[in-house]
Write a structure and sequence with these properties.
By secondary structure, this protein is α/β, with parallel strands linked by helices. It has twelve helices and 21 strands. It folds into two domains: about 1-325, Rossmann fold (3-Layer(aba) Sandwich), CATH 3.40.50.12780; about 330-430, GMP Synthetase, Chain A, domain 3 (2-Layer Sandwich). The strands form five sheets. It has a nine-stranded mixed beta sheet with strand order 4-3-5-6-7-8-9-14-13, sandwiched between helices. It has a four-stranded antiparallel beta sheet with strand order 10-11-12-15. It binds 5'-O-[hydroxy(phenylacetyl)phosphoryl]adenosine. 5'-O-[hydroxy(phenylacetyl)phosphoryl]adenosine binds near residues 210, 233, 301 and 322.
C-alpha cells in the first residue's frame, strides 16, 4: 500500500502543473509578506506575475543559510507570530542557530511527509517504532514522532542516547522499527553485541536512518549487524525536517515528496541547473509551507536526480543517496576528499571496525591526512606484523581512491568517540 497514492504516483506532467500553481502562490505570498524576498526580487526586476509555471523557477533568487542567519530569528517568517505553533533550530557551527517555524498547516504537512516516508520504508500501524533521534530543537525526534503517530504505529519516544535503556525497551516492548542516525545504529549494534543480545532474538525488521551521510557499504554493515532492512531518510530543518525524501523497498534512490518540495540540482560554480542526470548541489523550493516558505534554498548537499518511474510504482523523482556535502569536502593538497570515500574503502576491506576519523593538519606548507581506524583487540595482542600488514593494505587502498598519500593509525576499540546523533568524522586542525 502506498500512503498517498494520488501524489506519490501522479503523472509527471500533472505533477508539474500542481507544482506550477503552488509555486505561483508561494511567490506571491513571499513577495507580499517577506521583505527580504520582495527586496531580492525587486533588485532582479522580478514581479510575482513573471512566474507563470514551474519552468520559471530558475528565474527566482536563491536562498542560503547565511540569509537565515542574517534574518535571525524570525525575519523570514511569512506569517504573523500568532500563526506559528512551533519552532525548531539547528545548532550550527558558528554562533547563532538557524531558526525555523511552522504554522498548524505546516505541522500537518510535516507529519504527512514523514508518514509517507515511514510507509515507504514498510512501516504500518502494526509497527512499534522506537524513535532514537533527539527530541527538542532538532527536528529528528518530533518529526518522526508525528509521522509515526499519523500512520497509527505505536511510538516509543525514547529520544537519543541512554543506550542500555534503548536495548532494554527494544527487547521488552518488541520494537519493530528503529529510527536514529546511522552512526547511532552502529553504536547500538556494538552495545548489543557486548550485552550478548543476538539481533535474531529481537523483533526489529527495519531502520529509518538519516540526518548524516552514510554509504552503501555502511548500509550492508548495519543491515547485517542488526538483522534488519536499513532505509535512508533525508531532510533538513530549513525545508521542514526529516521526510523531505525517503527510500522505498527497492532502495534505488530516495523519493522526494515533490508536491511539497521542488528539487533542482545546480552547478556550484555557475549556479546554473546541472545537466540532466549529473551530480550537482541540491536546491529546494517549498511550495506549500506557510510559516517559512523558502525559494531555491541551497542545501550544500550533492546528489543527482532521476525522474524515471520506480518499480515500486511511485513516480516521485528520486535523489541518489547523498554521500557528501560540499561543506564536508576537504581539500587536501588541492585534492577533493569526502569522508564517504574513506568509509567505502574501509568497509569494503572489512577487516576493521566501522569506526573511523579523519584528522587533517598542516606540516609546514603541506596538508596532511591521518586516518584513525579501530581494529579488534586481538590485533594488538598478536605479533606486530599483522597490524602493519593491515595498516599497509588500508593505506594503499585509500590512497588509490583518493590519489594523495595518507597516514593510517590503527587504534584500539572505543578509541573513537561514539555518537548518539550526527557523527563527527573530521578533525581539521588547519582551522585551529
Ligand atoms: O538532519 C533532519 C533529519 C532528521 C533528517 C532525521 C533525517 C533524519 P538538519 O539538522 O537541518 O536536519 O541537517 C540537515 O543533514 O542538509 C544533510 O547534509 C544532512 N542529512 C540529512 N539527512 C541525510 C541523509 C536533519 N539521509 C543536513 N543522507 C542535510 C545524507 C543527510 N545527509
Amino acid at each position: 500500500m502506498i500512503w498517498n497514492e494520488y501524489y506519490e504516483c501522479m503523472d509527471r506532467e500533472k505533477m508539474r502543473e500542481v507544482q506550477g500553481k503552488r509555486l505561483c502562490d508561494t511567490v506571491d505570498r513571499v513577495y507580499h509578506n517577506v521583505p527580504f524576498y520582495r527586496k531580492k526580487m525587486q533588485t532582479m526586476g522580478l514581479e510575482p506575475g513573471d512566474i507563470k509555471g514551474i519552468d520559471d523557477i530558475t528565474k527566482l533568487p536563491f536562498t542560503t543559510k547565511q540569509d537565515l542567519r542574517d534574518n535571525y530569528p524570525f525575519g523570514l517568517f511569512a506569517v504573523p507570530k500568532s500563526e506559528v505553533v512551533r519552532v525548531h533550530a539547528s545548532s550550527g557551527t558558528t554562533g547563532k542557530p538557524t531558526v525555523v517555524g511552522y504554522s498548524r498547516k505546516d505541522i500537518y504537512t510535516f507529519s504527512e511527509v514523514v508518514a509517507r516516508s515511514l510507509n515507504s520504508s514498510g512501516a504500518t500501524r502494526n509497527d512499534i517504532v522506537q524513535i532514537a533521534y533527539g527530541y527538542g530543537l532538532f527536528t529528528g525526534g518530533l518529526g518522526l514522532h508525528y509521522g509515526a503517530e499519523k500512520i497509527g504505529a505505536t511510538v516509543i519516544p525514547i529520544s537519543g542516547g541512554n543506550t542500555q535503556k534503548q536495548l532494554q525497551l527494544m527487547q521488552d516492548f518488541g520494537s519493530t522499527v528503529i529510527a536514529c542516525t546511522p552512526s547511532y545504529a552502529l553504536y547500538l549494534s556494538e552495545a548489543m553485541e557486548e550485552a550478548g543480545i543476538s539481533p535474531e532474538t529481537l523483533s526489529l525488521k527495519a531502520g529509518i536512518f538519516g540526518a548524516e551521510p552514510w554509504t552503501e557499504e555502511m548500509r550492508q554493515n548495519i543491515e547485517q549487524s542488526l538483522n534488519i532492512k536499513a532505509y535512508d531518510i533525508y531532510g533538513l530543518s530549513e525545508i521542514i525536517g526529516p521526510g523531505v525524501a525517503n527510500e522505498c523497498d527497492y532502495q534505488c534512490g530516495l523519493h522526494i515528496w515533490e508536491d511539497h518540495f521542488v528539487p533542482e540540482t545546480i552547478d556550484t560554480d555557475t549556479l546554473q541547473p546541472s545537466k540532466k542526470g549529473c551530480i550537482g548541489e541540491l536546491v529546494f523550493t517549498t511550495i506549500t509551507k506557510e510559516a517559512l516558505p523558502l525559494l531555491r534554498y541551497r542545501t550544500r548537499d550533492l546528489t543527482r536526480l532521476d525522474d524515471t518511474k520506480c518499480e515500486c510504482g511511485r513516480t516521485a523523482v528520486r535523489m541518489e543517496k547523498c554521500t557528501g556535502r560540499s561543506d564536508d569536502m576537504l581539500i587536501i593538497r588541492g585534492v577533493n576528499v569526502f569522508p564517504s570515500q574513506v568509509e567505502s574503502v574501509l568497509l569494503e576491506i572489512g577487516e576493521t571496525k566501522p569506526h573511523y576519523l579523519l584528522i587533517v593538519d598542516r606540516e609546514g606548507a603541506l596538508d596532511t591526512l591521518e586516518i584513525w581506524v579501530e581494529v579488534d583487540d586481538y590485533y594488538f595482542s598478536d605479533e606486530i606484523g599483522k597490524l602493519e600488514g593491515l595498516s599497509n593494505r588500508i593505506k594503499h587502498a585509500v590512497e588509490s581512491v583518493l590519489g594523495i598519500s595518507i597516514k593510517i593509525k590503527l587504534v584500539e576499540p572505543k578509541t573513537i568517540q561514539r555518537s548518539e546523533g550526527k557523527a563527527q568524522r573530521i578533525i581539521d586542525k588547519r582551522k585551529a
